[in-house]
Every structure is written in C-alpha cells, then in structure tokens.
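In the design runs reported in the main text, the only information available to the sequence generator was the tokenized backbone. The following block is the verbatim input for one such run; it is reproduced so that readers can re-run the procedure and compare outputs position by position.
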C-alpha cells in the first residue's frame, strides 16, 4: 500500500473536488480519497498491486483536470515514472482560466490588467448616464452596443478558459463553478445579441454585454486574489524548505575543504560548518564547540550548546564556533524533511467537521442550476418578461459560491497547522486538530514529562554489617542499571562515574518494565526495583528496615535474596510545569498525572505543580487502561502527554496523543501531536491553537452557509416576489460571490497572527 499525493490543476470550487473524488474513488485499489481545494492536492491510499499512479492521473484528466504526482510514501518505495506527467504547457495552458488567474506568466498578468481596464470602460459606456463625464461620442444605440462588444472581446479572451472548462464539464454532466459562470455569461451575451437583431430593440439600456464582461472580469480578479491569499496561507512549508542550505563544505581525509552541493552529501561524510552557516544535514559533532539556533525545529529561541558527541539538526544555524560534523541522516531522512512531510500530509487531511460541507458540495451546482431554471421560468411565466427572468437567473448562477463552502475548512487547516509548525507544534492530521480543539481532560506521564527526566541521586542506605562495602555494592548496582535506559538508572550510573567507580561485568540482565531489574555480577544475583518487585521474588524486610525517605523515588537492592540497600533519587518538576498546569486550568481543562512511583512521591509532585489528580504505582500497561477508564466514566475528550516507550499504548488509546519531541521515536509515532521543543507550556499552546483553528473553521462554515442561504434567494427574486423587497443585479452578484471566498480566506489568514499563550 502507498499513500499518493498529486498536485491538481484546474479546480475552482468544491464541486470540482467532489467530481475528482467520486471518479478516483471508483478505481479498484483506491481508498481514503480526498481532494483539498485549498492546497490543490489529491491524496489517496493505493494498493500497489492493483492501482498505479498513471491510472490515477488519467482518471483525473478524464474529469477535465491535470494531476501531477508529487509524493509517494508507504510500504513500498518506487521510483517515479514521469512518462505520464504533463508538461508545463499542458499543466497551465495559455488559454486556461486557472493559469490566468494564478498569474503564472507575465503575459497573463498583462492580460488580466487589460481585461480589468476593458471591464471598467465597458461599465462606463453601458451606464454613462449615471456619471458626470459624458461619452466622447454620441449615444447612437447600436453604435454604443458595438463599442460594448469591442470592449467585451479582451475580457472574453482572458476568460476563455472558464468557458472551455465550464461547457466541457457541463457536457460530461459534471458541472462545476466554471459551468455556472459560463452558462450565465453566455446567456447574457446571446440575449443581448438577439436584441440587437430585433428591429427597434437596440437600446443599450436593455443589453447585458456589460454584465457578462464585468462578471468574467470580477471572477478572474477574485480568483487571482484568492490564489494569492492561498499562496500566503501555505507559506509554512515553503519557508521550511527554504531553510535547507544549497551548499556544504566537505572535509576529506587530508582535512582539505571542498564546496559541494547539498544534494551530493552522503552518510558519514565529514562536513565543516562555520559561524553563521546552517547545518547541511543531520549529524554528530566530531570537532569544535559552538551553539546552535534550533528555533526552526523546536520553536525555542534559546541557543543550544554543541560539542563533540552532540547531535545537530540540518538547517539549524551554527552561531559561534566552527564545527566539524559527521552526517548521519541526509535528504528525505532528515528531521527537517520529516517535518515538512508531516505538515504537508496534515494540511491535506480531512477533519470530521468538513463532512457536511463535502456532502452539500456534491449536489450544490445541480441545485444552483435548478434554482436558476425555476427563477427564469417563474419570472417569465408570471408576466414580468423574458428580460426579468434572465436577469434573476443570471444573478443566481453567479452569486452561488461553492468555493467558500469548499475553502472553509482546508484553508484554516493549512494556516493553523503551518502556524503551529513555526512554534514547534506538529499536528499530524485534521482529525487530531479537531479533537484537540475539544479537549476537556489532559493526562500526563510524570517522569520525563512533568519532571525533568534527569533525576539526581540523593543517598545510599545500606544494611549495617553487610557483606560488601558501600563502593562495592554501588558499583554492582550501577553495572546492572547501565543495561537499562530508565531515568532513575541513568542517575545511578552518573553517580558511579562521579565517584570514579569501575563497573564490573554483568550477565543475564533482564528488565521488567515498571518493576525492576535482575542480573548477575561477580557470581551474585542482584534484584533492583520496587519493594513489591522484590517481595514477589521472596525478598522481605528482615531485622533491617530501610528509612522512609519521604518525597524520593526508591530503588531497593537485594543480593542473593538478602535486602542490603536502598537508593534514593529525586526527579524535580520541570521549571515550567506549574505554569503549564495553571494555563490548562485557565482553559477549563482537568489535569491528571500517571506514574509508577510511590503515592507519597506522586502526591508531593502533584502538590508542587498544582495538578488536579494523580494515579500512583502504575505499570506501563496500566496507563492505557486508566485513559480508557477516564474516557468511559467522565465522557470527555482525553489527551495523553508522554515521552517514553512505555507511554505509547496510552498515547494511542487517548483521543489525542501528545508527545514531547525529544522523547522516544515510538512515542512520537503513536502521537497525534508532536511538540518538538522541551517546553511543557507547548501543551497548552497546542490546545489553544487547535481551539483557535477550530473556531475559524466554524466561523467560515457559518459564513459560507449563511451567504448562500441568503444570497441565492435574494438573487432569484424571492424577496421581491413575496415582500416587494430588494433584488440583485448580476454584476453585484458576481462581486458578492468573489468577496465571499476572500472573506473565508481572510478570516483564516488571521491565524497567521496567532501566538502561544503566555504563563
């Protein structure tokens, strides 16, 4: 199975997207088909054994659009076969309404300018009696009409793609937005031409050449502005792509430098990065010391110190000293490339909130055509006349705006997800964003999430008259703990190194997650872990009882079945933990802490940071069950925040899994939202961003529905017929339609000013 992504050319609204979705969904082997009109992308899951990318592209082409494969991800990695891909000329032909609207070429931009000038002159000629400046030539009826026709020609030339696409889709019984515009403009032109052929009916006040010309010009201008705005909305990915340096300095075996293209870098190449340069790949520092600005990845502006052994991230800025690094990840495998891919996939996803709009869009154009036809027949047969019926039908055709309906959700997703990426908040899908916007409860892992994850050793308590000295026993314990990656174990190993202890070899080390370790050192069997872990293996306190050590995490040590020592470790809360919890409380979100630690330790941490509730002495497998229990009993949307391997099941179980980016890869893969920074405040920021984006989506959908619900009846003359109320001229209907899409886009662009909440 592969996930295919295509760039689509020629779409102008939700009806276009619906047509492509229906056609591609019928292909054998195609599932999860979605067209994002804001990003102009088609995504689908394809069975590689049944369906190929060229088949998908051909299907899209048969619908009247062009498709270019831009990415393929999944279980199988195959080289792209570009034999089926269209050329640039095919992709944006010279007569394409879309290509023109996008202003892809200077000639097309000039054509747009000429069309707008012609439309302004056409309006003046047609409505000259409304202006103080009179025509430079006599108002001679048919001559005036001829001038209007001449001025109309450059507008029709500029918008010829609209007519071509519109009538082609209408002939295929898959009408789109272009079909409505083309049908309305053509009807106005033909009606006006017919009037000119009838004797004594050449009065320009009854002609609609100006309406047709201004409608086409306004539509083209609206699309140009719309695509400019969409380009701004999708700037996040472009900005990230521009961060990657184009060149790098390669260092050979003789320490000689050579400037090469970044694409030529290979794994294990030695690269030199000077102050002010960006790291050309992910890698490890071999020589030199410096600091790095990794804000493009983490969202944190504080420089990070780098020295031998430190990892560096491609596209981060080397600030101070010269660094020699060894490349470990290049090209599409770098952190930057993975982030770009994640953002692109998320921006192309479909959240559940868009389903109603998708359903309506499928039938929208047919409904508009029916409404226009009924309006024409109703006014004509009522005695108002053919001209009145045509005017209302034309207004209905051009005011209907499936574009606003289709853009309401995806444009907000693109801006919101892109904005989050700039602050180190990576949202993997539209569904995750929608769920995160409704979070009511946040469940936290303790160690490494609410706490620093770098605990400090505080004391060793040994049994009096034990068979080993303190250093001997500590070295044996550290040797076992070195085989574990648990934060408490790392604290023991660091303390042993500080003491200068030589660690003995170990045998048969086995870990039981959440409980402890078992292994052999110098012929002795050691058990390290919780009191329950040792008790289950027959180790019970004898004459010696270890001290209580309040507020500290404890590691019990038994050698050959005899309890000999107790190690105490303290893991302090993150500096921003209390502020993060307070920020969530201000958002009316309940907070819960899960930990495998003792109740006393958990209670002390909870009191320090102000968390609402906690569940102590849990096994890793218990965390997912606790999350499930909260979901069932409290009937709330639950988020889980964690960073370790043992958090993965709980992250998957939660409605929204949030992973701290520096944590384990498996945790990141299981999460719906990844925080690339180490600031716990980012949890509150991520939820706030999702709420803001969801709010914008709801506003956009309301506006799109309200506009069409009010605009179409107004254009059809319903208010005039029932209440003698206002009606709408076709030109103003076209202006309103163009403004509707721009309102939706403009509202979404407000998210570009969003900033994380401050503590």
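Verbatim output:
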């Amino acid at each position: 199975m592969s996930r295919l992504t295509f760039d689509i050319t020629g779409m102008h609204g939700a009806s276009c997207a619906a047509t492509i979705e229906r056609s591609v969904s019928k292909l054998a082997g195609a599932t999860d088909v979605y067209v994002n009109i804001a990003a102009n992308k088609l995504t689908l899951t394809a069975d590689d054994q049944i369906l190929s990318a060229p088949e998908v592209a051909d299907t899209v082409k048969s619908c009247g659009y062009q498709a270019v494969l831009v990415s393929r991800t999944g279980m199988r990695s195959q080289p792209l076969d570009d034999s089926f891909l269209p050329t640039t000329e095919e992709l944006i032909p010279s007569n394409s309404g879309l290509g023109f609207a996008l202003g892809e070429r200077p000639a097309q931009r000039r054509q747009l300018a000429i069309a707008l000038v012609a439309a302004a002159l056409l309006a003046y000629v047609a409505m000259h009696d409304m202006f103080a400046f009179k025509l430079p030539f006599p108002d001679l009826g048919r001559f005036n009409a001829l001038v209007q026709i001449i001025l109309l020609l450059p507008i029709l030339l500029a918008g010829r793609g609209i007519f071509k696409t519109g009538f082609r889709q209408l002939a295929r019984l898959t009408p789109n937005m272009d079909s409505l515009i083309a049908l309305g403009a053509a009807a106005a032109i033909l009606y006006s031409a017919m009037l000119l052929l009838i004797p004594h009916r050449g009065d320009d006040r009854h002609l609609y050449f100006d309406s047709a010309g201004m409608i086409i010009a306004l539509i083209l201008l609206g699309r140009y502005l719309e695509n400019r705005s969409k380009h701004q909305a999708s700037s996040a990915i472009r900005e990230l792509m521009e961060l990657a340096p184009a060149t790098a300095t390669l260092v050979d075996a003789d320490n000689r430098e050579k400037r090469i293209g970044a694409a030529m870098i290979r794994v294990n190449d030695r690269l030199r990065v000077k102050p002010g340069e960006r790291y050309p790949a992910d890698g490890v520092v071999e020589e030199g010391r410096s600091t790095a600005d990794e804000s493009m990845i983490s969202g944190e502006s504080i420089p990070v110190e780098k020295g031998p052994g430190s990892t560096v991230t491609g596209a981060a800025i080397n600030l101070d000293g010269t660094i020699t690094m060894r490349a470990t990840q290049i090209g599409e495998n770098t952190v930057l490339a993975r982030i770009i891919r994640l953002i692109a996939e998320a921006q192309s996803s479909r959240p559940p909130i868009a389903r109603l709009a998708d359903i309506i869009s499928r039938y929208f154009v047919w409904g508009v055509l029916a409404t226009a036809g009924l309006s024409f027949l109703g006014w004509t047969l009522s005695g108002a006349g053919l001209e009145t019926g045509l005017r209302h039908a034309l207004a209905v055709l051009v005011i209907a705006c499936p574009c606003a309906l289709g853009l309401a959700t995806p444009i907000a997703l693109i801006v919101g997800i892109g904005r989050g990426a700039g602050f180190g908040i990576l949202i993997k899908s539209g569904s995750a964003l929608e769920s995160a916007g409704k979070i009511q409860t946040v469940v936290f892992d303790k160690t490494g999430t609410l706490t620093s994850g770098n605990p400090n050793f505080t004391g060793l308590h040994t049994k009096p008259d034990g068979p080993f000295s303190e250093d001997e026993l500590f070295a044996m314990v550290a040797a076992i703990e070195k085989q574990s990656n648990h934060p408490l174990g790392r604290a023991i190993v660091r303390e042993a190194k500080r003491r200068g202890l030589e660690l003995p070899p170990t045998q048969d080390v086995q870990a039981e997650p959440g409980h402890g370790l078992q292994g052999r050192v110098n012929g002795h069997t050691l058990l390290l872990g919780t009191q329950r872990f040792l008790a289950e293996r027959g180790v019970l306190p004898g004459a010696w009882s270890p001290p209580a050590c309040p507020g500290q995490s404890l590691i019990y040590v038994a050698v050959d079945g005899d309890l000999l020592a107790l190690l105490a470790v303290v893991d302090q809360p993150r500096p921003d933990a209390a502020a993060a919890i307070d920020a969530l409380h201000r958002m009316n979100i309940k907070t819960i802490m899960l930990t495998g630690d003792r109740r006393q330790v958990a209670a002390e941490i909870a009191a320090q940071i102000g968390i609402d509730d906690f569940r102590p002495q849990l096994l890793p497998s218990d965390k997912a069950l606790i999350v499930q229990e909260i979901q069932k009993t409290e009937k709330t949307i639950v988020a889980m925040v964690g960073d370790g391997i043992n958090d993965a099941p709980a992250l998957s179980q939660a409605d929204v899994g949030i992973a701290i980016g520096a944590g384990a890869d498996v945790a990141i893969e299981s999460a719906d939202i990844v925080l690339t920074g180490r600031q716990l405040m980012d949890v509150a920021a991520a939820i706030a961003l999702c709420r803001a984006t969801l709010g914008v989506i709801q506003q956009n959908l309301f506006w799109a529905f309200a506009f069409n619900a009010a605009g179409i009846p107004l254009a059809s003359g319903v208010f005039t017929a029932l209440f003698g109320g206002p009606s709408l001229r076709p030109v103003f209907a076209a202006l309103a339609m163009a403004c509707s899409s721009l309102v939706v886009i403009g509202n979404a662009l407000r998210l570009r000013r969003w900033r994380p909440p401050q503590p």
